[in-house]
Structures are given as C-alpha cells and as structure tokens.
Amino acid sequence: MPLRIERDPLGEHAVPADAYYGIQTARAVENFSISGLRAPAHLITATILIKKAAAEANVSLKRLDARVGAVIVRAADEILAGAFRDQFVVDIYQAGAGTSHNMNANEVLANRAAEMLGGARGEYTLVHPNDDVNMGQSTNDVYPSATRLALLLGNGDLVAAARALATALDDKARTFDGVLKVGRTHLQDAVPMTLGQEFGGYAACIDRGADDVERASYQLRELNLGATAVGTGLNAGDDYTRLAIENLRRFTGLELMPPANRFRVTQSMGDVLAYSGAMRRLAVELSKIASDLRLLSMGPRAGLSEIALPAVQPGSSIMPGKVNPSIPEMVNQVCFQVIGCDVTICTAAEAGQLELNVMMPVIAWNALHAAMILREAMRALKSRCVDGIESDAARCRELLDRSTAAATALNPYIGYAKTAEVAKESVRSGKPIRQIVLERGLLDAATLDRVLSVEGLTLPGIAGQERTVPGIGGRQEKPS
Q1: pLDDT of residue 479
Q2: What pLDDT is stored for residue 7 in this prediction?
Q3: Residues 460, 409 contacting (CB under 8 angstroms)
Q4: 309 near 382, Cβ under 8 Å?
Q5: What top-level class would CATH report for the domain 141-240+263-393?
Q6: Is-contact 100 25, C-beta < 8 A?
Q7: Active-site annotation holds for 316
Q8: Domain 3-135, what fold?
Q9: Which of 138, 316, 403, 426 is an active site residue?
Q10: What pLDDT does residue 477 have?
C-alpha cells in the first residue's frame, strides 16, 4: 500500500499514507499484534470526549491557539458522531498504562484537525499530537479517566437491563402466585411454597444486584484529569482540571468531579475493581437464576417440568423434537466470563506499583467487556425467555402432594421427633402424612385439616393459626 514516512524520538517509520493515525500508533500495531481485539466503543468515545474537553479548557486558559482548538473540537465531534472509528487500531494488549491508545487518539485528532486547516496527514506542523491535542495531559490521567467515563457511559443501560429483568421476574411472580409447589433445599423436598414466591425471590436478587452496580458507579465519577504524570498536576493546574471536568459534565450530563485525592486516583484502580465486583455479584445472582430455570424446566417427562421455557431453537442434531434451555445456558456462560473478567481486573489492580498502575489496558477492556455481555445477556433472558415462561400448575401440585413437604408444619403440635417418624413412614410406605398421623392418633382430623392446608403452609407463622400475610415474594422495600 502507499506509505508515508514519519519521524519520532526513535527515528523514522512507515505509516499507511491514507491513515489518520501516525507513527506511534504504527509502532504499536507492529509491536502488539496479539489478539485482534480493539478498544471498545465506549472507551474510544470517552477518550475523545476528554480530548475535546481538554481542547476547550486550554483555549479558555489561552494556552492553545483558538483556531487550533476549534479544529480539534470539530475533529472530535466527527469521531463522536461515528467517523474514523476504524482508525483506532491498537490491540487491547499493549504497553502499560495505555500510552499507545492515548497516542492513537492524539494522532487521529491531530491529522484530521490539520486536514481541516489545509495541511497534510503526518506533517504535524499545524496541529501536533503531543503539543496541542495532548496539552495539559498525560496518559496517566487520560487513560484512567477514560476508563471511568467509559464505564459510566454504559452504566445506565446496564442497570436498566437489570431493572427490566427484575420487573419481568416480578410480573411472573404475580402471575404464578397461586401455583402451589414444593420448595427444595439441598435438591431435596423441603416445605410448600408458591411458584410466585420463588420468582419473587429471583426478582429481588436481580434488583439488589442492580443496586450494587448503581452504588459502585458513584465512585467512578472522580476523574483525575489534570493529575498528569503522578498526581502533582505538573503542566496542567487546578484551573485546567476545573474547566475540563466542567466541560465533560456539560457534554455527558454526568455528575463528574475532580478527585478528593489525585494521587489515589492515579495510583489505584480500586474504584474500577469495586465496580467490577458489583458486576460479579450481579452475574452470580443471574447465573444462579439461569441454573434454576434449567432445573425447574427439566424434562419434559422424566424431570421436574414445573415450568416451560419458550422454545428458541431445536435442541439436538440427532434427537428430533428435543428442546433445550438455550437462553439460560447462554446466560450461564456469560456469567462465567464476567467472573473471569473480574479475576483479571482484581489481579491487574493489585499489580499497580508506586504512582501508577500500568496494567490499566487489560483492566479497562475486561471491565467494559463484562458490562457489555452482562447487559446483553440480561436483555436476552428477559425478552427471549422470562417473558414467555409458563407454569404447569398441575405438575407442581402433583409433586407437592407426592412429597413429605407438609410434615414440617406438624412440628409445633407433635414435636420434631414424632414428625420425623411420620415423614420416614410416609416415604417408606407411600401413605399420605395425614393418614399416618390419624392412624397413630397424634392429632384429630379437624386440627389436621387446618394444619395441613397447603395454601396456609406458604405463609409465615404457625400453620393452622389464622394469618393474613400475602404469600407472594416479589420486590420488597429496600432498607434505608
């Protein structure tokens, strides 16, 4: 392909003639041909927003020529509108701290801005990547700020996906509130409950996970822009920091702020780790629910088959008519990956040394990748599975009636030991609990009718005594 020659402190290097990136990006492409993975879209957007905010701040402070600042802003707006995204070509596995990513952005903006002024790509006499686009900045404040901002840009959609899934589960909880079934612990029969209570618990689990993600996002609002290399603010200053962050607040509508301690935010990726930990918690809750849906739908003849999941694709290449729980299986795999991303982030966050964590690129990619796949998995689970789940009330009642689940309600009346004997006899002989209790003369028929009323067994309190608590689990008021 046609090439141009550029020069940097290491010497000359060829760059594709039509590329908007420059020599440092070309070196990075050559050095880091590792995965074929590129910067996530939100990370590019966040980085360009920072460059735009910096240019406007530097013009306001009269450090940057107004005409140069204006074309940098125009070039940034083009990228924010979707142009030149193919020019961000550095592999996610790159030199520490994200210098190559930062310079990729600087060079693309510089070359496009110079072109607007009539210059040629690669000249850098009209607009320079370091002197103009990177003015008042260091990779060490740009990259962590971009990581935080990128996560914040996607946070609303992630939380919304979780809330929508929780609402769908809550709707099913209300639909299934009258479906009596046996609850299970240790995969063994436990006590009666309703399918609505089970799904209400699922809804509350996802809601609480979303709460964690939302709370963790607040820590990301501190941006160390202006901290420059180690946190001292050399070549930037408080006025620059204030203006740059004010600009970002205006661009994004997010409640961004300077950090209480610039050195902490420059040294540590702990806030990103906390956000990843919240996503891990949400993924764990989600994966458990997906596994439960697979168990509850197993069958349809030789398993539990208490619920039916929507059929989304044939389940076997050899067994005609087989339908698998495909969406929950996908969700499980996504959640395992999110947990793996969190392990990488944890290890990389711990690897920070002295004034900087150089492992930021792998932290950023894993956090953003986890957020994206978790969001999409929840959307798919809601729309392609939960919304279409149906219950088999007859099957639920059949399994309940065959179990010894109701025996636990006898504890307050005849004691644990006698209740255990009754349950064991029921399992051995196949006789109903009620029949055995009557045969042994442990309770009279009228009392048994009250105590063993299955509907009453799903409520708090002592079975057989009047209670008015609703049985649905559902979403609950959060503690203050």
Answers
A1: 42
A2: 96
A3: no
A4: no
A5: mainly alpha
A6: yes
A7: yes
A8: Fumarase C; Chain B, domain 1 (1.10.275)
A9: 316
A10: 46
Q: Is 256 exposed, middle or buried (0-12, 13-18, 19+ CB in 10 A)?
A: buried
Same fold, 141-240+263-393 and 404-458: no
3-state secondary structure the chain: CCEEEEEECCEEEEEECCCCCCHHHHHHHHHCCCCCCCCCHHHHHHHHHHHHHHHHHHHHCCCCCHHHHHHHHHHHHHHHCCCCHHHCCCCCCCCHHHHHHHHHHHHHHHHHHHHHCCCCCCCCCCCCHHHHHCCCCCHHHHHHHHHHHHHHHHHHHHHHHHHHHHHHHHHHHHHCCCCEEEEEECCEEEEEEEHHHHHHHHHHHHHHHHHHHHHHHHHCCECCCCCCCCCCCCCCCHHHHHHHHHHHHHHHCCCCECCCCHHHHHHCCHHHHHHHHHHHHHHHHHHHHHHHHHHHCCCCCCCCCCEECCCCCECCCCCCCCECCHHHHHHHHHHHHHHHHHHHHHHHHHCCECCECCCHHHHHHHHHHHHHHHHHHHHHHHHHCHHHCEECHHHHHHHHHHCCHHHHHHHHHHCHHHHHHHHHHHHHHCCCHHHHHHHCCCCCHHHHHHHCCHHHHHCCCCCCCCCCCCCCCCCCCCCC
CA gap 104, 82 in Å, rounded: 16
Q: Count CA within 13 A, CB hemisphere, residue 337.
A: 18
Token digits of residue 73: 């802003």
Q: Write down the pLDDT at residue 470.
A: 54
Domain ranges of the chain: 3-135, 141-240+263-393, 404-458
Q: Return the CATH class of domain 404-458.
A: mainly alpha
What is the CB neighbour count within 10 angstroms for residue 212?
19
- Cross-strand partners of 5: 14
Bond prior to 470 in cis (omega within 30° of 0): no
Mean pLDDT, consecutive 10-residue segments, the chain of 480 residues?
95 97 98 97 98 98 98 98 98 96 98 98 97 98 98 98 98 97 95 96 98 98 97 97 98 98 97 98 98 96 95 81 91 98 98 97 98 98 98 95 85 91 90 89 89 83 72 49
- Beta carbons within 8 Å of 171's beta carbon, 6+ residues apart: none
